[in-house]
Amino acid sequence: MSVLKESANLDNHNISSLVATGAGFDLLRYYTLPDFLGKDAPYLLYYMGKNVARQTSLHTFEELYEFFQYMGWGDLSLVKEKKKEMVFHLNGHIIEKRLHQNLYPVDFRLECGFLAEMIHILTKVTYECLEEIHEKENFVEITATQA
After folding, report:
1. Residue 107: what are its φ and ψ, rounded to 5°?
2. Residuewise pLDDT in 10s, the chain (147 residues)
């Protein structure tokens, strides 16, 4: 008989204790979820990302960048900031591998939803995020715009 642990907010301390591989996560994300969710999968992944962010205790952008690494989502960095817009780059070995595999088309809707909600939590301003894939340069540009 197993006992369920009490649910806790995610943070960099407890998320780093999880053992996982990106391959299993990608199979769920790109094969199983679209099969269940159909054409609505990208929209629902975005809102799943927002939901994960609401269960996450991060207090700074530095913690946010670390969280992306712990989750296996890549190296996130802010590259440009304007009055109502922030531009982030998501890169690294994991992103390069995802962009250049030939099994399935990739998207970054989950990451965009998570980032939009975390920016809202950190700044108290509502943002929406869209990604643009730069396959040749091996990075994803995520633009966060005030809603």
Report:
1. -140, 170
2. 444 445 557 666 655 555 555 666 777 777 788 888 888 988 999 999 999 999 999 999 999 999 999 888 999 999 999 999 999 999 999 899 889 988 788 899 999 999 999 999 999 999 999 999 999 999 999 999 998
Q: Which residues pair with 143 in a beta bridge?
A: 87, 130
Measured CA to CA, the distance from residue 72 to residue 60 in angstroms comes to: 19
- CB atoms under 10 Å from CB of 30, counted, come to 18
88 belongs to a structural domain: yes
Question: Per the domain annotation, does 119 fall within a domain?
Answer: yes
**Angle in degrees, 0-180, between the axes of helices 61-71 and 109-123, rounded to the nearest 10:** 160
> Is 136 a member of any domain?
yes
Cβ(73)–Cβ(53) under 8 Å? no
Q: Is 123 helix (H, G, I), strand (E, B) or coil?
A: helix
> How buried is residue 22: exposed, middle or buried, by Cβ count under 10 Å (0-12/13-18/19+)?
middle
Q: Indicate which CATH number applies to the domain containing 111.
A: 3.30.1380.20
Total domains in the chain come to 1
